[in-house]
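ARCHIVE RECORD
Type: protein–small molecule complex
Small molecule: guanosine-5'-monophosphate
Source of inputs: curated submission
Record status: active
Notes field left blank by submitter.
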Amino acid sequence: MLLENSLRQAIDNNELVIHYQPLIDGTTGRTVGVEALVRWLHPERGLIQPMEFIPLAEETGLIVPIGEWVLRTACAQNKAWQDAGYPPVVMAVNLSGRQFRQPDFTGRISKVLAATGLAPEYLELEITESIALEDVEYTIAILKELGAMGIGIAIDDFGTGYSSLSYLKRFPITTLKIDRIFVQDAAKSQQDAAIISAIILLAHNLNLKVVAEGVETPEQRLLLRERHCNMMQGFLFSRPLPAEQVASLFDFCW
Ligand code: G
Ligand code: G
Ligand code: MN
Ligand code: NA
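STRUCTURE (tokenized, with ligand):
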């Protein structure tokens, strides 16, 4: 297949780029993290969004080298910002199931940290509920190792999977990311606002931090702030941006 062959060469041809979206502290308005989001700068087709090539990458297994490239590049970028004197931020990196289940996964992560010189507390790995629940015992073992290394773990798209709440107390995670479908209508829908309130309370009672995704309006921000949501992410603050552009926001206060 044409796209598959060109995706195979995308890493070697330096066609992959990462855009970084700020995570804002709900109280101070400061950027406390960024999420790494990969894009493919195709020589003929232009900028291709991950929705259009991540599924193909998953099918073909190319997600493993792509994911490793993203992890290494994002960690190196974060260290470079710190070395340049920017206020430190946590780098959030999305993991695919295949990557998570790679042999010696935690060994690979520690090699990346050692090679880039990034301290583990400045890395947070995002996994979805479906990845985490595929093999619960494996997940617990891996998350324990990552936790012991000092790396943060976020459950991404929280509330959209088969949220079995019983796993929350068994998985040593640090953060819940409320899916943007709940944030979208929170200022208009009492049901969505109630779900958000419940997720924030749940997270806080479990000593987890909570991030709201897809914050687009001042009304949504206010509602989340009133409910003591720790962090927010969304177009209201910033779209995902190239490294050079996002770093200038680290000193900014929303
Ligand atoms: O901006 P957005 O279109 O960037 O991202 C769309 C989807 O692609 C999201 O679900 C996001 O989690 C996923 N995605 C973006 N970057 C990566 C990556 O590096 N690895 C994996 N596995 N998924 C990613
Ligand atoms: O699935 P995950 O949460 O990793 O993916 C993040 C996705 O959400 C990316 O595609 C990113 O571009 C997108 N995104 C980030 N902020 C907003 C927002 O405020 N509104 C919408 N609609 N999408 C957003
Ligand atoms: Mn994510
Ligand atoms: Na998400």
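CURATOR ANNOTATION: The CA atoms of residues 172 and 205 lie 14 Å apart.
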